[in-house]
Amino acid sequence: MNDSVKRWFLIVTGLLGAISSGALILSSLRSGVTPGPSLAWWVTDTNYSSAAHPSQYGFMLFAYIAGLIGFAWLAWHSYRN
Length: 81
Description:
It is a single chain. The chain is mainly alpha-helical. 75% of the residues lie in helices and 7% in strands. It has a two-stranded antiparallel sheet with strand order 1-2. Helix 1 (3-31) runs antiparallel to helix 3 (54-80). The longest helix is centred in the N-terminal third of the chain and has 29 residues, at 3-31. The protein is elongated and about 50 Å long. The protein starts with a helix and ends with a helix.
């Protein structure tokens, strides 16, 4: 793959992932409910409430924040190189 195409692909992927993760974090904080990991919530309808499942809710927020940081780093690193 051409270096400039690869660079812009990684930048766009990082930005879209960071925006999606940020939106998921904000909606989870507003509603107090976060969906389960990956696509498990589609099958089992697993949602973690901050009142009923505080440790799972906190872990999922931590995972989403880690994803936000990872995607932001990918976009920034690709942009700087």
